[in-house]
């Protein structure tokens, strides 16, 4: 099964994605993790990515598309995967038009709640200014993808405001 996870930072995508990955026995692929790993390496590319991540802006499509495509070609993705953090823009969505996702799961939470949760999480890029920048980009560029996947008939909306187990069982029900 090929699944997309969509939602603002702090919506619980990573918690839910891990649980789904265990349940479905398919890999959970997180674009931000792949980029953070390279950004942590002592190379020119690592330095370049680190600067972009620290600005809260998006990494260029060319870099992200090639990393994601490379990752999805690995053997463990043959029976399916859960993708988080990609696509972030309509152009990125078009670049993976050839992948037939069964479901695009949208975890919905109010904007104020995302800010509250992210400030608590305390990742190095979770300072208020950068969070606001990422949320602004999310609402501007990523939310339009909901319409795109709705038109494809694969969008599933999940209320992200309950407890973890309840949200997970809602997801499992919707992907039967
Ligand atoms: P995340 O962990 O999803 O919040 O991503 C952390 C950072 O990685 C973002 O602020 C972007 O700079 C970068 N990033 C993650 N996914 C993408 C993507 N699909 N396209 C461009 N940049 C991305």
Major sheet strand order? 2-3-1-4-5
Uncertain regions spanning at least 5 consecutive residues: none
Q: Tell me, briefly, the overall form.
A: globular
Would you tell me which CATH topology applies?
A: Rossmann fold
How much of the sequence is in beta strands?
5-15%
Q: Measured on Cα atoms, how large is the radius of gyration?
A: 16 Å
Residue-averaged pLDDT, rounded? 95
Q: What string, H for helix and E for strand, traces the elements in order?
A: EHEHHHEHEHHHEH
Q: Provide the list of bound ligands, each named once.
A: adenosine monophosphate
Number of helices: 9
Q: What is the CATH architecture descriptor?
A: 3-Layer(aba) Sandwich
Helix percent band = 40-55%
Largest sheet: 5 strands, parallel
Termini Cα gap = 11 Å
Protein model, in words:
This protein has 176 residues and is an alpha/beta fold. The protein has one domain: Rossmann fold (3-Layer(aba) Sandwich). It has helices at residues 13-24, 31-39, 44-55, 61-72, 90-95, 111-121, 128-142, 144-151, 164-174; strands at 2-6, 28-30, 81-84, 103-108, 155-159. The protein has a five-stranded parallel sheet, sandwiched between helices. Helix 1 packs across helix 9, helix 2 (31-39) crosses helix 3 (44-55) and helix 6 (111-121) packs across helix 7. 26% of the residues are buried. It binds adenosine monophosphate. The site of adenosine monophosphate has 16 residues, from helix 2 and helix 3. Adenosine monophosphate binds at residues 9, 31-32, 35, 52-53, 56-59, 64, 85-86, 88, 92, 134.
